[in-house]
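Quick review question:
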């Protein structure tokens, strides 16, 4: 199993909890740093700060869809899909605000929003507005919004009918919770219409380890009276596939210590598109989605790498325990905790999520470019 890359862009939130009771890794600073990286969080943001996705809204809060079956989707649990899947555009929306828009997830969300709405109806909030100057050039309103400066959040969220609040890159749970609470308070104070919040799988039921801050934020949203939608993410596919692709290109082999168990990761592109659907369509407010991508395994990945790279890739089984978080991740995969599947992402996208080959092809194009 290739070692996960720790050089993703800031604010990207690659790490998402795979939603199982086995995720009780000790929450020490170093472990959190690396885990945040693999999960989609920012990597070099120790210098700055990494942002994940948290949306908030105003009104009567309804948090729905408590997980009943850990391996079942909404339809399998006997629930009707949230009706936003019919693609009906939300009527009368005049402003959508995306926080942490300078990161990989936020930028992709903005791209999808601009395909659906005039630029005059899209605003972004960033701690460092200069980093999104290119969005201003496209007609998007750029606002200063710093999770550690609540007054800036009020001005950043002003006039928002919908808010996508991408969570702080802060690794300390207590500080992260404080930042998210400041964002929720600002959303209430400015009368935000509804919020979409990107959380972790199982954050609705687990309050420890990597889900602790997200669990607290979901509870804060619930108590706030803000209408909101919770988007619980799995691991980002890129956190596993990019280092695997690099390994295959460099050495022609892929180490695998997963015992052939499955991973339910989803691409950041698909999760961003799903967020855009939620922000621009009716009837998502009050919903909670547990997003998972198509299940894949490392044996599947070896074959996909050979197809995409156009060269043989050796499958090297590893039995020795890898060091640090890498070893912990392999244990989680071997235990099957990343195999949970739901249909929520497909329902929101109204299409199948990206396949292993499709995501690898996109990553290869990025590498070649």
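Suggested answer, residue by residue:
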């Amino acid at each position: 199993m290739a070692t996960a890359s720790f050089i993703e862009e800031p604010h990207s939130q690659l790490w998402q909890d795979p939603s199982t009771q086995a995720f009780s890794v000790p929450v020490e600073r170093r472990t959190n740093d690396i885990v945040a990286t693999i999960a989609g969080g920012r990597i070099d943001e120790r210098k700055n700060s990494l942002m994940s996705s948290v949306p908030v809204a105003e009104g009567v809060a309804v948090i729905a869809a408590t997980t009943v079956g850990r391996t079942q989707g909404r339809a399998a649990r006997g629930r009707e899909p949230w009706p936003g899947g019919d693609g009906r555009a939300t009527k009368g929306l005049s402003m959508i605000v995306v926080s942490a828009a300078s990161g990989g997830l936020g930028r992709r969300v903005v791209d999808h929003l601009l395909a659906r709405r005039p630029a005059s109806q899209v605003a972004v909030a960033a701690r460092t507005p200069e980093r999104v100057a290119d969005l201003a050039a496209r007609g998007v309103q750029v606002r200063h919004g710093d999770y550690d400066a609540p007054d800036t959040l009020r001005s950043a969220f002003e006039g928002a009918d919908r808010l996508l609040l991408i969570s702080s890159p802060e690794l300390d749970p207590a500080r992260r919770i404080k930042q998210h609470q400041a964002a929720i308070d600002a959303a209430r104070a400015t009368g935000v219409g509804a919020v979409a919040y990107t959380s972790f799988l199982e954050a609705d039921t687990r309050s420890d380890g990597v889900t602790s801050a997200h669990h607290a934020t979901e509870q804060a949203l619930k108590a706030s009276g803000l209408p909101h939608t919770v988007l619980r993410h799995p691991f980002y596919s890129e956190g596993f596939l990019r280092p695997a692709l690099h390994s295959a290109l460099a050495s022609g082999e892929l180490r695998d210590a997963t015992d052939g168990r499955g991973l339910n990761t989803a691409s950041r592109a698909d999760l961003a598109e799903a967020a855009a659907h939620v922000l621009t369509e009716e009837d998502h407010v009050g919903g909670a989605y547990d997003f998972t991508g198509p299940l894949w395994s490392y044996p599947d990945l070896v074959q996909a790498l050979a197809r995409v790279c156009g060269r043989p890739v050796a499958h090297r089984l590893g039995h020795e325990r890898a060091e640090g978080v890498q070893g912990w991740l392999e244990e989680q995969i071997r235990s099957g905790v990343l195999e949970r599947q739901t249909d929520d992402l497909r329902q929101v996208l109204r299409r199948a999520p990206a396949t292993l080959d499709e995501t690898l092809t996109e990553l290869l194009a990025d590498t070649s470019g």
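Why it works: Residues 111 and 339 are 30 Å apart (CA to CA). The chain has one domain: 29-65+84-368.
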